[in-house]
Amino acid sequence: MLDAIAADFRGWTSDFAPMVPGPRGGRSGGADLPGQLRRMRPDIALLTLKSVLFGDCRQKLPLCGLPALVLQSRDDVAVPLEAAAYLAAHLPRARLELIDAEGHLPHLTDPALVQKALLAHLERCEGAGPPVAACAGSAGGHSAPASR
């Protein structure tokens, strides 16, 4: 994939981008993903993809003490369910929620569904832990791991 981007960024956006929103392109927003990607500079797109593919922050997951919602949509061509389950299992206060959205970008393809999930998560979190501002001042910007 990296070679394809480096060799022909515009062609890669035409081939790969339509797969990302899902088989039917989602309910809204994902239709112009190739155009949105083409507005990026190719070197920045390549650098961003390298950081996503090769960055490894697994050792830092236990440091996040804030409640987290891991949303996983069906038919995600970029992130398998196993990766989302791993993330939720290793964030101390995480909850995995499978949503009935297509593809890798549910915030674009079904923003109302994502908004509903996020609002429900925020309602569950009220009173469940320290406010975000209190955690931001702790060492390294993380709160201590909380028990489940």
Can you walk me through this structure?
With 148 residues, the chain is mainly α. It has helices spanning 2-7, 9-16, 33-38, 42-54, 81-90, 106-109, 111-125, 132-136; strands spanning 68-74, 94-102. Helix 5 (81-90) links the parallel strand 1 (68-74) and strand 2 (94-102). The longest helix has 15 residues, at 111-125. The chain starts with a helix and ends in a 12-residue tail after the last helix. The relative contact order is 0.17.
Strand order of the largest sheet: 1-2
Helix content: 40-55%
- Tell me the β content: 5-15%
What's the number of extended β-strand segments?
2
Beginning-to-end CA distance, first to last residue: 39 Å
Distinctive features:
8 helices, two-stranded parallel sheet, 148 residues, 2 strands
Provide a compact summary of the structure.
This protein is mainly alpha-helical and 148 residues long. It has helices at 2-7, 9-16, 33-38, 42-54, 81-90, 106-109, 111-125, 132-136; strands at 68-74, 94-102.
